[in-house]
Amino acid sequence: MQRTPIIARAATGLLLGAAALLAVLPDAARAAWPDKPVTLIVPSAAGGAADLTARTFAQFLGARTGQSIVVEDRAGAGGIVGTHAAKIAPHDGYTFLLSTNSTHSANQFLYKSLPYDAQQDFRQVGMFGTFGTVAIARPDAPYKTVPELVQYAQAHPGKVFFGYYSSSSQVPPELFKARAGIKIDGAAYKNITQIITDLRGGQIDFAFVDYLTAMGQIDGKSLRPLAVTGAQRHPSWPDVPTMDSYYPGYVVEGWLGLSAPAGTPEDIVQAMNGYMAQALQDKATADKLRALGLMPKSMDVPRFDAFVKADTQRWKEWVDVAGIQPQ
C-alpha cells in the first residue's frame, strides 16, 4: 500500500483549502484594485460642472489609492460621443463614465437613435449629487420675476427668445412655455458660453443654465436670477423663488454620477461606490462639490440603479409635456 507522508498530506490539504478559499473570495481580495491608472471619461467640455466634478473626485481617489486618475474629456453630440467611448472601453474596472441625467435619462427621448443603451450597456455605480438650473435675464430687462416675464411674452408674442445648448437644456424653457401657455422661441447654441454672451448682449431674452455657470454672472451682477428649477431654493440665492412656487410640480433636476461598461467586475463596482461614499463624507471634497453648484448625495449601487430608472421615466414625462420632438 502506497502511503502519503504526513507532511505531503498536510501540504495537499493546505493547497486544497487555499483553492477553495480563492473560489469564494471576491476578485478584489485576490489582487489589489486599482493597481494601475484609472480613467474617468467626461462626456462634456473641460471647465464645466461635470468636468470639475470628475477632477475633484479624481484628486480624492488618487490620494486614497496612490494611483493616477486620468480625466478624459470627450465632448460632443449632447454627451453621446463620450458615452459611446465609455461603452466600448474594456470592462476591466479601469474605465468609468461620468454619467449624467442627459446621458442616461434624457437622451433616449431626445434623439431618434443612440449608439448605446443606458441600461443594457452600463452598470450604474453611484451618485455624486443633484443640481437644478436657474432662469436668468439681463439686469435691465423689463421683467424681474417669472410672472413679469410671462406678461412681457404675452404682450410680445413671437418676439421673446431663450437660448439652449443641448437637448436636455431645452427641456426647462420648453416646459415653462407649455405650463405658462406663452409663445416664445428657442435658439440653439453650440455651448453655454455663447448663450451667456448673447444674453448679456441682448440677442436673447432669458435662459435656464446650471448653477455653476450662473454663479459668477449672478454674483457679479451681470445677470439677474428669476427662479430655480430645483425642489428647494438655492442656498446662495435664498430670495430667488422656485419654479414650483409658480407652477406646482415644476421641478427639473439633473444629477452627476459614475457608470461603468457592462461586464465590469461587481467587486470593483462596489469598491468604487465605496470610494465615492468616502469622498462625499470628506468635508473638503464635499465643500468643493457644493461650490460647483452640486448638492452632494450618496447612494449605494442598488439605490442608484433604481434612481436612474425612475429618473428616466421623469424625463420621458418632461419631454412629452414640453412637446420636444426627437432629433
Automatic annotation (TrEMBL):
InterPro entries: BUG (IPR005064), Bug_dom1 (IPR042100). Pfam families: TctC (PF03401). It comes from the Bacteria. The keyword Signal applies. Residues 1-31 form the signal peptide. The keyword Signal applies. Keywords: Signal. Belongs to the UPF0065 (bug) family. This is Tripartite tricarboxylate transporter substrate binding protein. It comes from Achromobacter aloeverae. The lineage of its organism: Bacteria, Pseudomonadati, Pseudomonadota, Betaproteobacteria, Burkholderiales.
